[in-house]
Design brief:
This protein has about 250 residues and is of the alpha/beta class. Helices cover about 45% and strands about 15% of the residues. The chain has a seven-stranded parallel beta sheet with strand order 3-2-1-4-5-6-7, with helices on both faces.
Amino acid sequence: MRSIDLSNLKAIVTGGSRGIGRATAIALAECGADVAILYAHNFEAAEETKKLIESYGRKSLALKCNVSNEEDVSKTVDYIAKEFGRIDILVNNAGITRDSLIMRMSEEDWDKVLDTNLKGSFLMTKHVLKYMIKNRFGRIVNISSIVGITGNLGQANYVSSKAGLIGFTKVIAEEYSSRNITANAIAPGFIETDMTKKLSDRVKEQFLKKVLKKAPGKPEDIANAVIFLVSPLASYITGATIIVDGGLSLG
């Protein structure tokens, strides 16, 4: 059992059915929060995560939502607020990749990644903020990436979206700190998820050579950082980007 107490807080985690999103949702439930997870495609994985949350005695919702569509986001957020009574925590985790060198990258692949990773976080934040402002409390965490700071070959769209999230986080912090709302970003490094499993062995080896810990991170490593940032321990932290990469960016 975790020592941080988030009892009766209400949270939303986008991309919450697998990987970092699932680990974060479970960690929030373990600390006492009710958690709504949003997913794009995998109903079975979402339902499994929902059951894991409920195993901690917490209320959970698993909702399909296109985070890049404002009408869908608005309806989904309002439904969650009605079911939960309020919204205290938002973790913008939904993200996709469509990798290619710039000269080969299609406009469609550029738009799809920016729409999901960056526009999706903007829309979710926009529609959640009205509830946080009303309650004069909110904790927003945006899951960026270390490549949003360092750059990465063949990921112009993904890197741009993750770098944009860091800037977006700072603006939220500046605009809403007076309402007791904090906004922070986390920049994960090489984490074992379905996304990184698709990488070739050569690419994985290149990453691991740079990681000072000499091992990939776990989704739980990112979840731990989220729990800290939404807890009372981090009430004076806002507009920050926390790097959780096992020293990758130093390698």
